Amino acid sequence: MSEAATHEHALAEAGSVPGVDNRKYGVWLFIASEVMFFTALIGMFIAYRGRPGSEVYKQVLNVPVTAVATFLLLTSSLAVVLAIASIQRGSKRGLIAWLAVVALLGAGFIGIQFTEYYGLYNEHSFTLSSSIFGSTFFTLTGFHGLHVIIGILWCLGVLVRTLRGGFTAKNYQAVELFGLYWHFVDVVWIILFTLIYLL
Amino acid sequence: METAHVKPWTYIGVFVILGIVTFVEVLVSQMGLPPAALLIALLAMMTAKALLVAMFYMHLKYDTRTYSLSLVLPLFMAILLAIVVIIASRPAV
Questions:
Q1: What is the full DSSP assignment across A131-173?
Q2: Could you report the predicted ipTM of this complex, rounded to two decimals?
């Protein structure tokens, strides 16, 4: 950014740091708070592995199916960045298409997670209240699933705004901010998949 | 403030790497490695994937360092928190 542009930006938003967009920084601070939140839940999960109730979970978790869910979420992250690349080129059609893909892949992930929960509850009696370990497992994965659902709703909101002509090649920050949240949710799942299903 | 224009092929390349590493993770987890080796291998791959998403998809590689710092410092505190939680949750001897 040139000195003139930097000075202009500083005059426009008092207290802002050169090169830092306030809204984007706000989303990053929100993500930082979510990092604290999920790390506390992950700590609890790790603390209660090896306790009564945890011995059954390794046998009942379906790693191949969950690996498919992981690929869906990774692909959805690619779809988000391709959506942003589309609108950077001025392609609204590309933005709409890729956002629709994100929503569909996110819904697919939730579908797989719901099926897993159903199986754990009904076929293996592994529930939120069956053991302290069950509580930590379902709380951790359930909160992540809730974040994915919120992300899907956010995605649909951005999609509707796109359909109403809300974004151009020069104005697409809302898409980028949604993307930051979605990638964060993906990173959390990258960590959870390893800690819960593979280790 | 405009975001860096990264070529789509960069994103696709990162995606391919993420996919391959995920596949390798699943294979490694089924190999029956000693627990310490399994832990190190999986944590290393998990960290690499998280870094790739953060740096390329979340644009930390291309953006100002302020965003990275706003994540790194709380992450350090969060890891300390997790360690305290794990230690405090150990059964009383």
A1: -HHHHHHHHHHHHHHHHHHHHHHHHHHHHHHHHTT---SS--H
A2: 0.90
